Amino acid sequence: MKPFLLLATRVDDYAADAEFQSFLAFGGLAEGQLRRVRLEAESLPELDLADYSGIFLGGSPFNSSDPEEAKSAVQVRVESELGGLLDTVVAEDFPFFGACYGVGTLGRHQGAVIDGTYAEPIGAIDITLTDDGLADPLLAGLPSSFSAYVGHKEACATLPSSAVLLASSATCPVQMFRVRENVYATQFHPELDVDALVGRIRTYRHAGYFPPEEADDYIARARASAVEYPAAILGAFVRRYARD
Description:
This protein is of the alpha/beta class and 244 residues long. It has a single domain (4-241), classed as Class I glutamine amidotransferase (GATase) domain (Rossmann fold, 3-Layer(aba) Sandwich). It contains 7 helices and 11 strands. The protein has helices at residues 13-27, 73-92, 101-109, 131-135, 194-203, 215-224, 231-241; strands at 4-8, 34-38, 54-57, 96-99, 113-115, 120-129, 145-152, 155-158, 163-168, 176-179, 183-186. Helix 1 runs antiparallel to helix 5 (194-203) and helix 5 (194-203) runs antiparallel to helix 6. The N and C termini lie close together (4 Å). The mean pLDDT is 96. One of its GO terms (molecular function) is transferase activity. InterPro entries: ChyE-like, Class_I_gatase-like, GATASE.
């Protein structure tokens, strides 16, 4: 099988490695089947998409909607490189799945409004599939409503005209969309189970997602939540697009 590619931007090694392990586990992949490029540490190498089955884009401390003058040189570089890659991905309708940061990155590329209107605190929320979502092959077999983990400072305020809305929530109207047939983004995190979420809470307790003194409360609520379906989406993506 040709490997999948994970594009990551997390500076913290623990968070970066935990994310990699989550994509491996829920994608049903062995380590040799998932290659990783940490874009916060190195430039995106020249890629031949024919060498890969598909691309994952992980979450990020970067926000696409940050004022340009506030972005670091690394963030500006990463956004430029991802924009160039998405030019090719969308044009070729190449299999792509962006989690959380994927909505901001793909949405911005497609002309969406990305801002803080529908930011959501870290925790579990109820996701509802649209009729198009119920018919999408990545979501086949999932219930029409399920819980998923979120935690983001920005979101898609207006869906790009090129996109099909697949999932929504009461607090964030755009939770998942598709561009063309094979290019996906979710606002929620299908790669997170409760232990991974707790790790994120501890890692990013001073990153502005919540008052740091409330970290233990967020962890307790995470431990009490029941999230079981979103990880299946990653497995469905791998099964659908894996190729020799």
